[in-house]
Design brief:
Number of strands: 24
Radius of gyration: 23 Å
Structural class: alpha/beta
Shape: globular
Number of helices: 19
Length: 555
């Protein structure tokens, strides 16, 4: 049987004018800042703190994924549609896709099958220009730094101690480490530099944690760009950069309203990766959804050891959010993978049984936040009932409910059972979220808690460079900041080849970055890079566009 591709489904579906979607949220047409017929930005004055307290927040996370992902966004969209089908006023709130994965290996981030947000093609590509604005604001600061050094360098910036990097929203390993300023006196001062991918930019992190334009400006001013020749900190505000950067972001700070295939509201905003940044959409977008609907379904990137941990330990604490339910997405193919199966499309009950150890660890991790998760078994073509039964039985032995979802094939109809279970959990009121660690603990203790409690590590090793940075952070007075671990998404450990539930391993902190504007510390584990590379056969090679502008091969 031949199935339609995601883009074929999206393009063949009716799409409503965005004004009609806004009416579902009681938003007046005049409040919309429209980007054509099907997209709009929402003004921040629609956020209502009192209304937020009455609404219900649901987090969707996952087990450790395979490279193609396990459908976390698809389940999120499907669950929001399912909640609407059972009569609940629900909105899905997601991150914006990055062009790196779109043209690389993972594809877009608009869901899939009959559980998508549309217009899918526009969302996956330039959308409303938020990523471009973030990139420009970041690189404006880079230009101001090098310009200041070129003209007198009155701040006495030490060119060997500049922490700020340029960014670009594309996978390009050749730009990780570069030399700039070559060519002579008129071409700047030579120094080493590099590029991160835009979702790893501190500007992205700041946009996603700011709660107003003033807060955004203050956080941008607090960016630590490097040290001067006396070893003292130099901030973006010392270059008077924050106002110009904020001007570039004045529209990007506003969340974007679109729709699902079933014409339910979807808010999409911000896009930090979870393996190298905080991995969740903006605080503003989440609060907007909670202000306008009774239920908000949101997601956090990759496995629960990455996105969910940061969502719960950082975003929820910063924003005062209280998630009442956590959905843990699992797929049979991922369980086969973690059970050692090479061809994960071939049924194998024994591999599924072995691979369940990975899912069990993620269950335990969510429980450490005082929340009992519900498992969504995201069904793929080729899954057998026997394999599904294994997961349901093993979950039940842990007093965890596992629900089969078929949103890819059936849309909201395929998640009605999950939606009912989630509502039941929320009504029971037994989940009382608490963070895993106290931010005021010493840096190494916070890193140790995450590594040992969430990853299952035996111990943490530090390079000399990392230890030196910790001493520097302590001296600068930033040791109280929370931790955003940069770690491979392919394993609970820092070694991508260690599948399942690794035990007896150490994690290695290679280096540490500090984001004083965003307000967190980034230990970089193992060989993870903040500028990814393209695979041997990028997804871009399978994309086509015809003379009428019709795109195929985009997923």
């Amino acid at each position: 049987m031949k199935y339609k591709s995601d883009i074929e489904i999206a393009n063949s579906n009716e799409i409503f004018n965005i004004k009609k979607i806004a009416r579902k949220l009681d938003i007046k047409s005049d409040d919309l800042e429209r980007y054509g017929k099907y997209k709009a930005k929402l003004p921040l004055n629609l956020i209502n703190e009192n209304r937020i307290k009455e609404s219900h927040l649901i987090l969707v996370t996952a087990l450790t994924p395979t490279p193609a992902g396990e459908g976390k966004t698809t389940v999120s969209v499907g669950l929001a549609d399912g909640l609407n089908k059972i009569g609940k006023k629900a909105t899905v709130v997601l991150r914006e896709p990055s062009l790196g994965p779109v043209f690389g290996i993972k594809g877009g981030a608009a869901g899939g099958g009959y559980a998508q947000v549309i217009p899918m093609e526009e969302i996956n590509l330039h959308f409303t220009g938020d990523f471009s604005a973030i990139e420009k604001a970041n690189n404006l600061l880079s230009a101001l730094i090098d310009n200041h050094i070129h003209f007198k360098n009155e701040l006495r910036i030490d060119v060997r101690q500049i922490f700020w990097k340029r960014v670009m929203d594309m996978n390009d390993r050749s730009l990780r480490n570069i030399t700039i300023g070559l060519g002579g006196k008129t071409d700047g001062v030579p120094r080493t530099d590099g590029f991160n991918i835009t979702p790893a930019s501190e500007v992205m992190a700041i946009l996603c944690l700011a709660d107003s334009l003033d807060d955004l400006k203050n956080k941008l001013g607090d960016i630590l760009i490097g040290l001067n020749l006396d070893g003292e900190p130099v901030y973006a505000r010392d270059l008077q950069a924050e106002n110009a950067m904020t001007i570039l972001l004045k529209d990007a700070i506003k969340p974007n309203l679109v729709q699902t295939l079933e014409h339910n509201p979807a808010i999409i905003h911000g896009g930090p990766f979870a393996n190298i940044a905080q991995g969740t959409n903006s605080v503003i977008a989440t609060k907007m959804g909670l202000s306008l609907s009774d239920y908000v379904v949101t997601e956090a990137g990759f496995g629960a050891d990455l996105g969910a941990e940061k969502f719960l330990n950082i975003k929820c604490v910063y924003a005062g959010l209280n998630p009442e339910a956590v959905v843990l997405v699992a797929t049979i193919r991922a369980l086969r993978h973690h059970g050692g199966k090479k061809d994960i499309d071939v049924p194998d009950i024994v591999a599924v049984e072995r691979g369940f150890s990975n899912l069990e660890k993620h269950i335990e991790n969510i429980q450490k936040f005082n929340i009992t998760p519900i498992i969504a078994i995201n069904k793929f073509v080729g899954d057998t009932q026997e394999e599904i039964d294994v997961v349901v039985k093993k979950a039940a032995a842990l007093n965890i409910n596992a629900v089969l979802t078929e949103e890819w094939e059936k849309g909201g109809e395929g998640t009605i059972n999950l939606a009912k279970q989630v509502v039941s959990i929320i009504k029971a009121g037994k989940n009382y979220f608490k963070p895993l660690y106290d931010w005021d603990l010493p840096i190494k203790e916070k890193i140790g808690i995450i590594a040992e409690e969430i990853y299952g590590a035996k111990d943490v090793e530090y390079s000399k460079k990392a230890l030196s940075t910790i001493r520097k952070i302590d001296k600068l007075g930033y040791s109280h900041l929370p931790i955003v671990m940069a770690k491979t998404q392919k394993s609970l450990s820092d070694n991508p080849s260690r599948i399942g539930r690794p035990e007896g391993f150490n994690v290695v902190v290679r280096e540490i970055e500090i984001n004083t504007g965003a307000g967190f510390i980034i230990p970089i584990l193992g060989k993870i890079m903040r500028m990814p590379g393209l695979p041997s056969k990028p997804a871009s090679t399978g994309m086509l566009i015809d003379n009428e502008g019709v795109v195929t091969g985009l997923s």
